[in-house]
Design brief:
Residues 47-138 form the Methyltransferase domain. With 226 residues, the chain is of the alpha/beta class. The chain has helices at 3-16, 23-27, 29-37, 58-62, 75-84, 123-133, 183-192, and strands spanning 46-50, 67-72, 90-94, 106-112, 134-145, 154-156, 163-167, 173-177, 196-202, 205-211, 223-225.
Length: 226
C-alpha cells in the first residue's frame, strides 16, 4: 500500500469514527493530564492548530491566544469541534493537511497526536510547511505518543510505512499511519533540518517546543530531551 492509499484510509477512519473520537479522553487520566499541560506552554498570539479533531485542545488554546485557526480534513470531527467551542476567536477550516498551505503566518503552530500520523517520507515537507506558517519568533508546539504507546496498538508488521490497524464499534477496520517517535531520534531529525527543539517526556507521551531555522541553510542552536 502506498502512502496516498494509506492516508486516504486514515481519513476515512477519522470520518467514520468521529462519534468515538472523544472516548480515550474520557477513559484515560493521562490524557486529561496532557490537556492541562497547555496552560504551561508558550501558546501566544495567533495560533494555527493542525488536525484539531473534535476540538479537545482548541478551547484551551483559545483561552491563551488572540485567535485560533483550527484545521482538520474530517468534516465530521469538525462539526463536533464547532459545537463544543463557543469562542468567537476560533475559526474552523476543513482541509487536507498534506495539500493545504497556510495563506498567512502565525505566532504558534500547535498539533496534538498528529505527527505520528505523518508518513516518514513526508516529514521534511511537513516541517517545511510548519516553518513557512510561523511568523518571526514563532514556535511549533506538539504533543504525541512515545514508543511505549505501541503496546496499545495493533501494529502492522512489514509495512513500507509504519502503520496500525484500528477498529470501530461497528466492526469496520482501517489502516492508519502510526509512527512511534522516540524523543531522542525526533530531536536529532529536527536538529538535522535546522530546527531548535526541546522535547520532554510525560508518562508515555512527549511534549515538544521547536523553533524553525533562522536562515535558509538552517542552524543548530540547541537540542535537548527531558
Amino acid at each position: 500500500m502506498d502512502d496516498d492509499a494509506l492516508l486516504a484510509e486514515q481519513r476515512a477512519y477519522y470520518r467514520a469514527g468521529a462519534a468515538e473520537y472523544d472516548r480515550p479522553y474520557a477513559e484515560y487520566e493521562a490524557l486529561q493530564d496532557l490537556l492541562a499541560v497547555v496552560d504551561d506552554l508558550p501558546i501566544a498570539g495567533d495560533v494555527l492548530e493542525l488536525a484539531c479533531g473534535t476540538g479537545q485542545w482548541t478551547s484551551r488554546l483559545a483561552a491563551r491566544a488572540r485567535s485560533v485557526t483550527a484545521v482538520d480534513a474530517a468534516t465530521e470531527v469538525l462539526a463536533i469541534a464547532r459545537a463544543r467551542t463557543a469562542s468567537p476567536s476560533v475559526r474552523f477550516l476543513a482541509a487536507d493537511l498534506f495539500e493545504w498551505r497556510p495563506p498567512r503566518r502565525y505566532d504558534t503552530v500547535f498539533f496534538a497526536f498528529w505527527l505520528s500520523h505523518v508518513p516518514p517520507a513526508r516529514l521534511p515537507d511537513f516541517w517545511n510547511t510548519v516553518a513557512a506558517a510561523l511568523a518571526p519568533g514563532g514556535k511549533a508546539i506538539f504533543i504525541d505518543d512515545g514508543p511505549a504507546a505501541a503496546a496499545y496498538e495493533e501494529v502492522l508488521a512489514d509495512q513500507p510505512t509504519p502503520a496500525a490497524l484500528r477498529r470501530l464499534d461497528d466492526g469496520s477496520q482501517y489502516r492508519i499511519v502510526k509512527v512511534f517517535h522516540h524523543p531522542r531520534t525526533l530531536t536529532d531529525d529536527l536538529t538535522a533540518l535546522g530546527w531548535s527543539v526541546r522535547i520532554r517526556t510525560m508518562a508515555g507521551n512527549f511534549v515538544g517546543i521547536a523553533e524553525p531555522p533562522t536562515t535558509a541553510g538552517g542552524g543548530n542552536e540547541r537540542a535537548t530531551v527531558g
